[in-house]
Amino acid sequence: xxxxxxxxxxxxxxxxxxxxxxxxxxxxxxxxxxxxxxxxxxxxxxxxxxxxxxxxxxxxxxxxxxxxxxxxxxxxxxxxxxxxxxxxxxxxxxxxxxxxxxxxxxxxxxxxxxxxxxxxxxxxxxxxxxxxxxxxxxxxxxxxxxxxxxxxxxxxxxxxxxxxxxxxxxxxxxxxxxxxxxxxxxxx
DNA sequence: AAAGTGATCATG
DNA sequence: ATGATCACTTTG
Length: 188
Prior knowledge:
Layout: H1 2-8, E1 13-14, H2 24-31, E2 35-39, E3 45-57, E4 84-89, E5 93-99, E6 107-114, E7 117-118, H3 120-126, E8 144-148, E9 154-158, H4 168-172, E10 176-181
Antiparallel strand pairs: 1-8, 2-3, 2-8, 3-6, 3-10, 4-5, 5-6, 6-7, 9-10
The structure holds a DNA duplex.
């Protein structure tokens, strides 16, 4: 049993530029079960496991902000994968996205929930994430980054939320991914 | 079920 | 400059 625990012990590692170079759907799946990490002003580091994500996939995706092309707001989505895209929704909610893919390809993953804060507006409030972190480089930043312990988790796929403005076809794509269950809650 | 809230983008 | 719209949350 002890050996099993040692062998199955996962090491945390920060996601690298390579990890972010994939398409948004691949990334959205990979981020379920990964850790959103935030260093606050006072120096304390908060880590929460990501429970839900959504993929937004380029100008062809009518649900994606970049659907109408490059604008002041969507410009950041065209950068190489690995930076944060944060915008204000409904005048009060800061929404955190992770830009993915190569430069020039506007794809991003919306973080919709972490353990203890389900809902995109709730998690940003909890982790004090706002537009001052827009364009933050998640590969290098000491304020905001992502880690993975390499464990595979199960998730379900469903249509994305709040995109009634998109085409029926895009509304129906199952690009929302939700953590299904914990593999094992070991008390380390 | 509906308000609340302000940036953003297309229009003029 | 003006106005509709919005990757939501909370309150009634």
